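Hey L., structure's done. Input below.
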Amino acid sequence: MMRRWIFWLGVSISAILLYFSLRGLELEAVWESIKQANFWWLLPGIAAYFIAVAVRTWRWSYLLRPFKRVPFGGLYETVVIGYMGNNVYPARAGELVRSYVLRRDNGVPMAFSLATIFLERLIDGIVMVAFVLIGLPNVPSLPTGARDIVLIAAGAFTVAVAVFFWMALAPSTAERIAAFVIARLVPHRLQAPLQTFANRFVQGARSLSRPTDLAAIVFSTALAWLIETVKYWFVMHAFSLNLPFTDLMLLNGVSNLFTIIPSGPGYVGTFDAAGIGILTALGVKQELATSYTLVLHAVLWLPVTLLGAYFMLREGLKWTDFRKAEESVAVGK
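Output:
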């Protein structure tokens, strides 16, 4: 019931944002702009994106090292499957699936890997906020709502990372607090599996306890997002746009921060509204901004989704495994 409610909430938000982003547009002009694009520029852009995914895979392998060293090749396939899941299911269900696949293939507990994935998202968010701050001088005022999203995200990410630091530096205390809360609020039959899950989650913060590991994680995160911004640069040339790289960093940062908002599968509406809004604020005509954003979203979505579906079939996974992943978390596996 809850999952269905979240799905329809996301779909409704996507529809509303798309309506306000596209209303008043000359759709014929948008289509004409897309037809005139030089799509050869998309190929190196797609290649850049998959390089960024490889960097993120290396980062995840680093986060997993306190528990187990996982071979890069298999881990890359798992990451791509997770991205595919995020693109076709709401509420970032792909994160559960890649954690589930990692447990199935390498024996890493889901609670541990989910903690590392959550940590990834937090550091991603901080880098995105940094991208926005770097690009802000070119835009005196962000579009309505964008500045609030950035400020709220900056505060939330900072607090969450601080909590992870605390868990990394005081794991015993964090586990005792979790045990105290679980003992008083959770039915007895669920306490043992939930406590195991909580302990594994705390262990997933270990990578923050060593400065060298933390530096490697932050460096790889910034590198991955810079490489992904190169994809934005290639797609820009497909439309003969001429924006500074810092503008594209701003676009990347705000567009991805907006995907925090619940939406339909593939971040439809949230990503597009942010992209169109930022580009028009940068002086790009709305029709051209819409054409660019829609094509950019498509090339971010389609290649990794197709490759993820291929890896999923090769792994012998079924769509029912998405439900199994949710059930595994529910019982604390």
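The mean pLDDT is 85. Residues 286-314 form the longest helix (29 residues).

-- N.
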